[in-house]
């Protein structure tokens, strides 16, 4: 039995998602519409959502006017649905309210005793507070600052202190099969960002074919530290062959294995893989950077807690939250969401955990004027399938945030449809190009297998600002995205009093190139 209302029996134009996505309004098309723009809009959105591709879907949809303060469309608006990465709308807004746009993350290096003629007697401590932007270059800068302080030798250990957060690395209801993949990286208060996208708790694994068939494939991990082991059994296959190469890491360890084949003369293969215990990875990376700076650590690399009384040797402050929002929201970074969740718990309740942070998000929603009716959170990113969020609550949040002094900064961090710049278009870079929605729709995407969402802001054809939320469950992600894009394009052409495009002139409209769709966020799959 389908989970959404059956198609109505009144006569409706059959406007599929594909028809709207391969169309842009023309004067001829406008002539076929009616004078009641709202009625036309509702009929068209009904038709999109009653597409056979969505027959088994459960969809919650709300469209409201920010100018007229009225609801233009709603369907199952109050039903709590799995939101996927639409959860990040709540997490990011709460973080701006709880932590503030100027919040920064500090990483410090301290010693038990002040250096004496270059020697630190005892341990030095690398202390993290969750900075998601600690790249290799950042650790190199910290090591350089330690050397500049006059330290040349440490008689004790390098001790990594990640106790700003608890020791639980993975949310309890994340799927175990996701653990090797970068969207499910372990969460720590001390972690490495492996690239310019600031993906935390991962390494970049690259493989290049050898010079001839049968020769070993060249494989690298970056950053590759001493606590990681790489086993390579991969071989170069025939030039006409398919890639069967994969790089795996078993749960609970840091032995990475490259196996399979990479075609001779073919492209280099690159992927991200999570590390086990990101704190240890960060500490070993810092130890290597100290060594490069001529600072010798006589002991080993350990985990522990900084003593109450220490001397600061170096300190790094991250960019403020208002700037970190861009890679977080544009690229739908799960690690950043969970770091912020635990940071809010630490800030408000003195405990950097999911158990402390998630109630802080709900409390923040109340303060933002959004009672969390129907909201159930088990993580901050949306990777959990047990999260619940109604479309009505999503739209309510999007409306209320306009009153916040940081709203413009937050809104700018949302992906912008069809923009070629990844740090502008984000997860909407390849969507709605060459349509009235391109450069217009700012919205947060969300994708899990069988779950898809798109919620945000769009301006109608006559300049009327609109807010919308579309949450689709129990549906192939590609079909849901087609419908979401069709809805967004239709909203971008909306006017109240003028005729709107009819379905009879689709053949007169220029086709829009569609991007191949898969089951993941495009950033998760590396396609945007």
Automatic annotation (TrEMBL):
Belongs to the peptidase S13 family. Residues 231-265, 495-528 are annotated as: Disordered. It comes from the Bacteria. The keyword Hydrolase applies. It holds the Pfam family Peptidase_S13. This is D-alanyl-D-alanine carboxypeptidase/D-alanyl-D-alanine-endopeptidase (Penicillin-binding protein 4). NCBIfam families: PBP4. Residues 1-30 form the signal peptide. InterPro entries: Beta-lactam/transpept-like (IPR012338), Peptidase_S13 (IPR000667). GO terms for biological process: peptidoglycan metabolic process; proteolysis. Keywords: Carboxypeptidase, Hydrolase, Protease, Signal. GO terms for molecular function: serine-type carboxypeptidase activity.
């Amino acid at each position: 039995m389908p989970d959404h209302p059956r198609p109505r029996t009144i006569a409706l134009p059959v406007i599929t998602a594909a028809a709207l996505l391969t169309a842009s309004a023309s004067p001829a098309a406008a002539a076929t519409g009616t004078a009641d723009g709202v009625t036309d809009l509702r009929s068209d959105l009904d038709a999109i959502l009653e597409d056979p591709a969505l027959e088994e879907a459960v969809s919650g949809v709300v469209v409201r006017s920010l100018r007229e303060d009225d609801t233009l469309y709603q369907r199952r608006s109050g039903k709590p649905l799995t939101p996927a990465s639409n959860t990040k709308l709540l997490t990011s807004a709460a973080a701006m309210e709880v932590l503030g746009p100027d919040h920064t993350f500090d990483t410090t290096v301290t010693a038990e005793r002040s250096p004496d003629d270059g020697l630190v007697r005892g341990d030095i401590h690398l202390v993290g507070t969750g900075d998601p932007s600690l790249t290799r270059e950042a650790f190199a800068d910290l090591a350089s600052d330690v050397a500049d302080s006059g330290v040349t030798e440490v008689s004790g250990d390098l001790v990594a202190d990640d106790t700003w957060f608890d020791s639980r690395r993975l949310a309890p209801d994340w799927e175990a099969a996701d653990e090797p993949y970068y969207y499910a990286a372990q969460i720590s208060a001390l972690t490495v960002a492996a690239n310019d996208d600031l993906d935390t708790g991962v390494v970049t694994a690259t493989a290049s074919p050898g010079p001839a068939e049968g020769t070993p494939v060249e494989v690298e991990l970056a950053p590759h530290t001493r606590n990681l082991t790489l086993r390579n059994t991969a071989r170069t296959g025939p030039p006409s062959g398919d890639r069967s190469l994969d790089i795996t890491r078993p749960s609970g360890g840091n032995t990475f294995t490259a196996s399979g084949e990479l075609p001779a003369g073919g492209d280099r293969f690159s992927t991200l893989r999570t590390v086990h215990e990101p704190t240890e990875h960060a500490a070993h990376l810092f130890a290597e950077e100290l060594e490069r700076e001529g600072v010798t650590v006589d002991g080993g690399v350990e985990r522990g807690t900084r003593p109450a009384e220490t001397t600061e040797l170096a300190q790094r402050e991250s960019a403020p939250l208002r700037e970190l929002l861009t890679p977080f929201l544009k690229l739908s970074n799960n690690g950043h969401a969970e770091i912020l969740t635990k940071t809010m718990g630490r800030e408000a309740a003195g405990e950097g955990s999911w158990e402390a942070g998630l109630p802080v998000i709900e409390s923040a929603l109340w303060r933002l004027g959004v009672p969390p009716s129907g909201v159930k959170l088990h993580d901050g990113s949306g990777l959990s399938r047990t999260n619940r969020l109604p479309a009505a609550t999503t739209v309510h949040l999007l409306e209320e945030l306009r009153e916040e002094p940081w709203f413009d900064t937050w809104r700018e961090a949302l992906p912008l449809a069809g923009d070629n710049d990844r740090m502008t278009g984000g997860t909407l870079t390849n969507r709605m190009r060459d349509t009235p929605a391109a450069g217009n729709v700012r919205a947060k995407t969300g994708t899990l297998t069988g779950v898809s969402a798109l919620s945000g802001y769009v301006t109608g054809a006559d300049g009327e600002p609109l807010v919308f939320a579309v949450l689709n469950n129990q549906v192939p992600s590609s079909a849901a995205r087609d419908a979401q894009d069709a809805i967004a394009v239709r909203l971008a052409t909306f006017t109240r009093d003028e005729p709107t495009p009819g379905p009879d002139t689709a053949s007169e409209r220029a086709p829009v190139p569609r991007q191949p769709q898969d089951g993941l966020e495009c950033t998760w799959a590396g396609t945007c």
